[in-house]
Amino acid sequence: MSLPNLLTEPAQRPPFYRSISSHSQLSVNSSRSSKVLSFGRTFSYQKDKPRLYLALFSRGGTAGGTYGSQLSCDSYHWALVIGSQSPLRSEAGTAFHIVHGTSDSEGTHFFYEETDLRENPYLARNFLARIALAKVVDERRVVALFRTLASSVSAHLNPTHVPPHATNHDATSFSCLSWVKAAWAAVSEDSRRPLKSYFGPEDWSQFENEARKYVKRKRRQGRYSPNTEPGGVTWDPAEVPTWNYWENRETTD
Length: 253
Prior knowledge:
Strand content: 25-35%
Largest sheet: 9 strands, mixed
Distance between the termini: 39 Å
Radius of gyration: 18 Å
Number of helices: 4
Mean pLDDT: 73
């Protein structure tokens, strides 16, 4: 997969890039102690590296696109999110994902989006859970890899075009989930090591299974339902349930 030289040229947006964020331009502060990233967040190099999360959202429609599809999609909309360790929905970070567009005689069209969750309250409100997969060492590189992967498919993605890292090349199987799987493979295999992680593409099935089990467990606990029982557990709706995969523990309930 041909990647841009990040030392001499910026990450290029794919031709069918669609952003609803006003913070989508990458900029790096020369300060030694911190780096100002594309999404308006400041991270300390030592203490608060952003995380890469596998994110699950409930489904529903949006203007110009939808998080639902008839093509092999299950109960959730899947994305990768780069964000801080803060559990607050208002600080959830940026979602990188494929959005299903309209269907016509040529097939079903898709859009690649980088969605600042601060500016999309609908998506932030439907953020069911996240699984921490890795620490992000080089966010610029990770974003470039995501964009390059998205650019490897045609501008209005026909289901006959599947990302090169996808293991199943059946056209009807392309979905937000298969793109997320391909994106994880791209960043975890990259020779420049933009992530600090113990895991690789071979661990994907475990990630997916853990994410599904975690959301089901939270649903059984009543996490997504209003608390009406006297003496029941009070859940904070402002926070996103979070499971840290490499620590094998829940960090936000």
